[in-house]
Each structure stands twice: as structure tokens, then as C-alpha cells.
Amino acid sequence: MNAETLQIFVTVAEQKNFSRAAKLLHLSQPGVSLHIRNLEQELDAKLFHRSPQQVKLTEAGGLLYERAKRILSLMEEARESIHSLQGEVTGSLKLGASFTIGEYLLPRVLAEFAAPHPRVDIEVTIGNTGEIVQGVRDNALDLGWIEGETAYPELTVEPVMQDDMILIASPDHPLALERSVPPERLNDQVWVLRELGSGTRAVSDRFIGSYDLRMQRTFVLNSSQGVKEAVAAGLGIAMLSRWTVRKELESGDVSRIPLSCGRILRDFALIQRKDAADSLAKRKFIQYLMAFAAEHTI
Fold first, then answer.
1. Which CATH class is domain 89-161+267-295?
2. pTM for this entry
3. Residues with Cβ within 8 Å of residue 144, at least 6 apart in sequence
4. pLDDT per residue over 157-166, tens digit each?
5. Across-strand partners of 215?
6. What's the CATH fold of domain 3-84?
């Protein structure tokens, strides 16, 4: 029994699926299966109930899982403690970010963090909010930085900064030429929306629902860049984060619709599992993220 085999076992247990575990570990599925078979032979115990739908821990597997998590955590802690004596932060981080954050904010934090911490390996996953939340829940991600809201009992959710959502249109759109637009003027407009599961889509839906707006037609795109391009081309209006459209506003490719109802704010939140292993690399990264958030408070 070695650390690599224990990590493979823990990943299969958490993913409840050999294929997903193999993908996360960058191994072949047969290779993962072989490790598990060898471990079961070594312990002379069946560790998983296997079925086409799901892989579940046996009673023996449950006992090993709890102890394997502790062993791996202690090994990582020992490694970090030794390196900290030499003034180094080491380890690995699997970070997840929803699209707006991952494309417009996270790269800045990574640039500031990576330079003084060259021995921390970082893997980033960018997806919509729902995908990142699921990745953290499945232990595929150490941390998630998301737009919008989520509520699962196994997660901690810590708002770290606020985002300003704005309504945009092409520069020659009639609403973009007005000085103040009441929400009722938005009836019977064509809307360009993000996909379901997106934090941006959730804010748009909430705004449209709160004023009971009629939509003439909708187009759904799965990226903010696609939404911006569609709006600039005159397809319709859209609600996006101020972070995503700063350059387009400056260049005049899109214009802001000046709403009379005031600002529309949402939280950017840091999420992780309550039972997640701690590490010096994770703590240091969170410090950099919090410093960035404090500098960009709106």
C-alpha cells in the first residue's frame, strides 16, 4: 500500500465512478481498476460494490476511506512543514471559477500569486456556476470562486466581493440613447441570455421576473464573449458583469442602458467543502484572493 494507490482509492470513492476518477487522475481506466484490484488483494477485502450505474463503498471500504484521507492529509502536512522550514510554499491546487471570474478576474490573482510561489502547481477549471459548485461538491476542486448563489450543507460559502451588473445594447439602440430608462420600458425587447446554470443568467432571470417583463424573443449563448458580440451586432439587449464589458464600453462597441432603478449587485463567493483538507498553499492563495477583492471593492 502506497500513497499513489491510496490517492487513487480515495478519488474513486469520492467520484463514485472509475471513468471520472481516471480522468481526474490523468490515468487510464484499466490502470485505475488494476490499482483497486491490487489493493483489495493486499487487504483481502472487497472495497467497492460495483454496478453499471454507480460504485459504492463497502463497509471495509468506508473504514479505509476515512483512514486514507487522514494518511494523505498527514503526508501533505509533513511535506509542507518540511518545505516551510526552507521558506517555500509547495503543493498543488485545483481551482474552479465561473466564466466571468475565470476569464476576467482569476488570471490577475494567479499572476500575483504564481510569481512568488513557483513550487505550487495550479490547475484551473472554468465553467458555469453550477458546474463549479458540483466540482467542489465532488472533491474534484479544492476551491471554487463563483458568481451567484448556492446552498449545500457540505459547502462553506464566503462572499468576497460584489459585482456590478449592467444592461447593454448596441450603440444605436434607442434605449442606449436615453438618459434614464425605467424598467417598464424594457417590455417587448429581444434579450440575449447566458445558458441555464450560469450565475449571469440567474441575475438576468431574477431582474426580468421582478419587473414581470415581456420578452419579444430570446437568444441563449453559453459565453459572455458570445453575448457581447451578439449585442454589438444589434441582436438584442443583455445583462452582463461590468468586468466583462469594460473594453467594449471604452471602444464604443456597446453602450450601457442607463436604468432608473439603481444598481444591480451580486456577490462573488469563495466556496469549499467543510471537510476539505487544509494546506499552506490553499491558505496563501486565499490571502491573495482576499487582498485582490479588497482592492476592487465597489
1. alpha beta
2. 0.72
3. 95, 96, 97, 132, 133, 135, 136, 270, 271, 272
4. 999 999 999 9
5. 189
6. Arc Repressor Mutant, subunit A (1.10.10)
